[in-house]
Amino acid sequence: MDIPLILAQAFWFMIPAYVANPTAVLFGGGKPMDSGLHLKDGRRLLGDGKTWRGFAGGIFSGMLIGSTQHLSASFAGAGQFAFGSPFQAAFLIFLLPCGALLGDILGSFIKRRAGIERGAKTPGLDQYDFLIGAIILLLAFQTGWFLRIYVLDGAIIGLIFIVLITPPLHRAVNVLGYRLGKKDVPW
Ligand code: CTP
Ligand code: MG
């Protein structure tokens, strides 16, 4: 069991998902995804914090980074850091940011149903919604790959590793976004 390799792969392959969240903030604005819809509970379906521009921009950015990672790993002969065959790579590179932002949307949906205002701090959900979304899509559509990279033969320590580093990473990126004036709140 090559622990440094497991940890490096676990982080490396999650980068397109990690990138989607902050880039959604950079691109965000304009028409909200829920078009202002209120549910019977009197609250918004998702709220003004989830916009089409943010969603598309985040997915695009994650795919751009993922493609760059895949191509550089392939050309450098570092097959263990490539995302697989061209078809599988394209699919994974799409699934990761897409899952991240769907998880983020699900997080907002849950927050609104719980009566939490848009932008309010929600420990746990804020840090993990995107990671959970990415993992659900990987489990559903790339089961074998997910099990190999994040679960089987000791790879579970890679999953534990990303679960542990996600909150501080999330915090650091959000503080940066806040200082740069891209986020209204540092969480
Ligand atoms: N954003 C966006 N579209 C998305 C995700 C994020 O436009 N799909 C932008 C919005 O400007 C949002 C900001 O990124 O305000 C921060 O994202 P996030 O913290 O996820 O949203 P919140 O405003 O905190 O709203 P919520 O309470 O629903 O999470
Ligand atoms: Mg928020």
pLDDT under 50 segments (min length 5)?
A: none
Percentage of residues in helical conformation? 55-70%
* Total domain count: 1
Largest sheet report: none
Radius of gyration: 17 Å
Task: Give a list of the ligands.
Answer: cytidine-5'-triphosphate, magnesium ion
Secondary-structure content class:
mainly alpha
Order of helices and strands: HHHHHH
Calculate the terminal CA-CA distance, rounded to whole Å. 36 Å
List its traits.
mainly alpha, binds magnesium ion, binds cytidine-5'-triphosphate
Write the layout of secondary structure elements.
Elements: H1 3-27, H2 52-75, H3 86-113, H4 125-141, H5 143-150, H6 156-179
Helix pairs in contact: 1-2, 1-3, 1-6, 2-3, 3-4, 4-5
Bound molecules: cytidine-5'-triphosphate and magnesium ion.
Question: Can you summarize this structure?
Answer:
With 187 residues, the chain is an all-alpha fold.
Describe this structure in words.
By secondary structure, this protein is mainly α. The chain has one domain (3-32, 44-179). The chain has helices at 3-27, 52-75, 86-113, 125-141, 143-150, 156-179. It is globular and about 50 Å long. It starts with a helix and ends in an 8-residue tail after the last helix. Cytidine-5'-triphosphate is lined by residues 24-25, 28, 47, 49-51, 54-55, 101, 104, 108, 111, 118-119, 183.
